[in-house]
Amino acid sequence: MPPSRRPLVLSRYYVLLYVAVFAMIALFWSHTSTESLAARTFLFAATAGYAALYTAPLWLLSALLERFLPGRSDPGVWRTALLYGVAFLGGSIVLLGIYADYRLYELYQFHFNAFVWNLLTTPGGIDALGATEATERTLALQVALFPLGCVAVLVLLHRYAERGWTPSRRTIVVSAFTLFSVLAVEEFVYAYSTHTGQEDYLQAAETIPFHLHTGARKFFKRMGIEQSAVKELRLAGGTVDYPGHDLPATPVADRPNVVMLVGESFRWDLLSPEITPNLWQLSRQGTRFEQHYSGGNRTRMGMFSMFYGIYAPYWYSFERQRVAPALMNFLREHDYQLAIHTSQSFDYPELRHTVFAGVPEAQLQELKTGEPWRRDTQNIDDLIRKFDRRNPDKPFYGFMFFESTHAPYTFPEETVLRTDYIRELDYMKLDLRDNIDGIHARYINAAHHVDQQVGRLIEHLKRQKLLDKTVIMFTGDHGEEFMEKGRWGHGHGNTFPEEQIRVPLVLWLPGQTPQVVTHRTSHLQIAPTLLEYLGVTAPSRSYSSADTLQQPVENLVMGEYDYMGIGDGEHKITFPYTRSAFFRYAVFDANDHPVATEEGQKVIAEKQTLVDEVVRESRRFVR
Q: Per its UniProt record, what Gene3D superfamilies does this chain match (predicted)?
C-alpha cells in the first residue's frame, strides 16, 4: 500500500467522523426550550465546536503517529493496522460516549455526572436500574453497531481510496482552526453568561454532552464587569453536628413493636380499594394522610428525609461520616430486635452507610437476585418468620423495602389486575407515548402484588394478636411519573412534579382513633411522629427540621442529588446546591409548568426570605 494512501483514508475517515458526531450532538437540540435566534446560533456554534473538540484529537494523534513512527515510508501491514486501529478505537469510543449520554439525557434530562459515576461504580447500582433482558439485548446490538460502522467505513474508504474527494492537509488545518475559534468564542459567551445570568445561552449549553463549563470570573472582574448572576451555593458540607443520641424519653414498661414498609416508586394514587385493598382497609382503621409528600424524587432523598427528618443536602456529609438517624439510634438504645429487609441493596443507594449505619450485618437482609416480585414475597416470608422467633420480652423493629414497583414493574401472572399491560419492557425500543398506558398497567399490577404481601403480614399479626401492640407504617420512597408532565419515571433534572413526589402514607398507631388527615404532610415529619409516639420528650426541632404529622406543612422542601425544591402550593422554586450546575433559580407553577422569566423573578423576590430560611436550615447540623 503506498504511504500516501493511508493519510488520505484517515483524513476522509475523520471528516466523516466529524459529521457523525455533529449529527449526534444535534439530536440533543430537541430537548432545549431555546427560542431566540441568538441562542439558537449559539447552540449551532457549540455543536460545531464540540464536534471538532471530540474528533480533532484523534486526527492529530493519527497525524503524529504517521509522522514520527519508525519506518515512515514503509507500506507494511503493521503500520497500517496500528493507524487504522487508533482510528477505529477512538471513533468507536467517541460515538459510543455521545450515544450513551444521549440515551441518558433522553430518559432523565441530565448528562453523565457524579451520580452516573456513582451508579456505575457502586455495587448494586446497575442492578437498581431494573433493566430487562430485552433491554440488555437491544443495548448490546445498538452498542455493537458503532464499532461495526467504524470498521465498515474504514474498509470502504480503504478499498475506494482512489475515488472521491481528496481533502488537502491545508483544508483540514484551516477547518480545524476555524472550528476551534468558534469553540473559543462559544466558551467565552458561556463564561460571560454564567457571570451575568444569560438564561437563553445557559439553557442551550445544557444540552451539549460533556460541556466544559468554562468560567472566567476573575477575568470579568478585572474588566470591571459586575457579576449579576446568582453566586454558587454549597449546602450541608462539613463536619456533622447532629443530636442523634440520648434523646430524653418517658419510661415505658412495654414499648410497641414497629414495622416500617416502603414501596419503591409508590405514588399516592395507588392507594385505593381496587388496587391496594389491604392497605386501604388498614388506612380506614388507622390514619390516612391524603396530601403526603416525599422529601425528594429519588430513593436516597426519600429515605433520608423519612428517617432523619432533615433536608436532602445533608445526605453527602452524613453518608461520608456514617452518621445514623436519631430514630434508629433510639430503637437500638432501647433494645429493639431489628429485622431489616430489602429486595434491592443496602449499598445502592448507600443505606448501609446512612439510615442503617452501625446496624449489625446479621440484622440486614438484602435479596438482589431473581425477579423482584419473588424477592418481595420471600422477604415477607422471612420477616414473618423472624417476628415469630423474636424474644417476646423485647420490642421488635421490622423494615421492608419492596422492589416490585420499580421499573420494569414485576408481578406474578396469577395476580394480574390490569390485563392490558405491555408484555416486554425494552427501554431501548419503547415509544413512550404509544406504550405508556401498557407500562402504567404493569405498575398497577406490581402495586397490587405489593399490597398482597402487606396483607399477608397484617393478617399474620392479627392471628398472633400482635396488631394492637405494633406500629405499622406504609409509604413510598418517592412517586413515579407516566408522561403526565412529559416524562417517565422519577428524578429528572431540576423539576419535582407532583407525580414524582406525592406518595401515600398509612399509619397504624395502636390506641389512636381512625382519622383522615387532609392537610399537607411530609416525610420529614415521620421520624418526629414515631419518636414522639415512642415516648421521646425532646422537641422535634432539636433533632429534625419538622414538626409531627399532626401539624400542616406550609412549605414543602424536597431534593435530589444536585437540586433542592421549595413548594408553597402555588409555585415550586428549585436551585442547585452542589456546584454541579450553574446556579440559578427555576420557578414552576402549581401544574409544574415553568413560568415566564418576569413572573419567576417576582416569585423569587417574594419568597427570598423563605429560601434563605431553607438555606440556613440546610446548614444547621454541620459545622
A: Alkaline Phosphatase, subunit A
Sign of CA dihedral 339, 342, 348, 349: negative
- For residue 201, give the amino acid letter: Y
What is the C-alpha to C-alpha distance for residues 304 and 323, in angstroms, rounded to an integer? 11
Instruction: Give the angle 491-496-499 at the CA atoms, nearest 5°.
Output: 85
Which pLDDT score is estimated for 206? 86
Cα 370 to Cα 334, 366, 367, 374: the distances in Å are 36, 12, 8, 7
DSSP H helices, 515-575, are: 526-533
SS3 state of residue 101: helix
The answer to whether the CB of 544 falls within 8 A of the CB of 462 is: no
Are 465 and 510 in contact, with CB atoms under 8 Å apart?
A: no
**Closest to 140 in 3D by CA, of 110, 102, 96, 105:** 96
Query: Which parts of 500-548 are beta strand (E)?
Result: 505-508, 515-522
Cα 149 off chain centre by? 32
| Element (DSSP H or E) covering residue 586 | strand 586-589
Mean of per-residue pLDDT scores for the chain:
90
- Cα radius of gyration rounded to whole Å, the chain: 28
Residue-wise pLDDT for 448-501, tens only, equals: 999 999 999 999 999 999 999 999 999 999 999 999 998 889 987 688 999 999
In 464-596, which ranges are continuous DSSP H helix? Answer: 498-501, 526-533
Q: Is the peptide bond before 408 cis (omega within 30 degrees of 0)?
A: yes
**β-strand pairing of 470-476 with 257-263:** parallel
* Confidence category of residue 386, pLDDT binned at 50, 70, 90: very high
* Cell numbers that stand for 282 in this block: 388498614
Q: What is the side-by-side strand order in the sheet with 571-576?
A: 556-559, 563-567, 571-576, 586-589
Burial status of residue 538 (CB atoms within 10 A of its CB: 0-12, 13-18, 19 or more): middle
334 φ, ψ to 5°?
-105, 25
pLDDT tier at 74, thresholds 50, 70, 90: low
Within a 10 A sphere around the Cβ of 62, how many other Cβ atoms? Answer: 22
User: Measuring CA to CA, how many Å separate 192 from each of 188, 203, 223?
Assistant: 6, 14, 12
Please indicate, yes or no, whether the overall pTM of this predicted structure exceeds 0.90.
no
What's CA 203's distance to the chain center, in Å? 20
pLDDT value at position 1?
46
Residue 230's Cα: distance from chain center in Å? 25
Tens digit of each residue's pLDDT (9 = 90 or more) over 144-195: 889 999 999 999 998 888 787 777 778 878 998 999 999 999 999 999 988 8
Q: How far apart are the C-alpha atoms of 489 and 118, rounded to whole Å?
A: 19
Answer yes or no: is pLDDT of 275 > 80.
yes
